[in-house]
Write a structure and sequence with these properties.
This protein is mainly alpha-helical. It has 2 domains: 62 residues, Orthogonal Bundle (Helix Hairpins), CATH 1.10.287.990; 108 residues, Iron/manganese superoxide dismutase, C-terminal domain (minor pseudopilin epsh fold, 3-Layer(bab) Sandwich). It is built from 9 helices and 3 strands. Strands 2-1-3 form a 3-stranded antiparallel β-sheet. A hairpin with a 2-residue loop joins strand 1 and strand 2. Helix 1 runs antiparallel to helix 3 and helix 5 runs antiparallel to helix 7. The chain is globular, with a radius of gyration of 16 Å. It binds manganese (II) ion.
């Protein structure tokens, strides 16, 4: 069974100029798809890899295969964390944000600083750790699920994520997406600890 490119959970025009249809054409249709194609090639060439889920491969591989399967999971999780409509955190998630950072605005500024300060390609992330929220980042294809983390949200800070709509302005991209397009309802669902599985695929 081969890995697939998951459908986007919204129309690629849904974000207007904040994340354009052209960006989705390239970022989802070409970059994310290329990771799926390459991972399937590597798995097809090695019987010992077949039948393993994305998460199983992420946690048992290194190098080229790790990069492909890590990026499949990362992108699948990233798309699910975005919302065309602006939301506000509520309930237990809002409580955790207030306890950890003082306000949602303060959390967003911390995530933005992590995204902007991350050198070169990678991912800014919000995890649940020991019952508290944690802001961190990962390099290249590295992923929270390779570190036993409980992922809640990740933001792609590879240049391919923003170069069409924001050119080199990573701060503008991070600011716009974090302030207007986080799917906080879905982030809150991931407090159940099942976020890793929500972007998993069977092998
Ligand atoms: Mn990407």
């Amino acid at each position: 069974m081969a890995f697939i490119l998951p459908d986007l959970p919204y129309a690629k025009t849904a974000f207007g100029e904040d994340m354009s249809a052209e960006t989705f054409d390239y970022h989802h249709g070409k970059h994310h798809n290329a990771y799926v194609v390459k991972a399937n090639e590597l798995v097809a060439a090695d019987a010992s890899l077949q039948g393993k889920s994305l998460l199983e491969l992420i946690n048992s591989s290194k190098g080229g295969l790790f990069n492909q399967v890590g990026q499949i999971w990362n992108h699948s999780f990233f798309w699910l964390g975005l919302s065309p409509e602006t939301q506000e955190p509520t309930g237990k998630l809002a409580d955790l944000i207030n306890e950890g950072f003082g306000s949602t605005d303060a959390l967003i500024e911390k995530l933005k600083a992590e995204a902007v300060g991350h050198f070169a390609s990678g991912w800014a992330a919000l995890n649940l750790k020991d019952g508290k929220l944690e802001v961190t980042s990962y390099h290249d294809a590295d992923t929270p699920v390779a570190h036993g983390a409980t992922p809640l949200f990740i933001l792609d800070v590879w240049e391919h994520a923003y170069y069409i709509d924001y050119r080199n302005a990573r701060p503008s991209y991070a600011d716009t997406i974090l302030k207007k397009h986080v799917n906080w309802a879905w982030v809150a669902e991931n407090l159940d600890g099942n976020g890793a599985e929500r972007a998993n695929q069977p092998g």
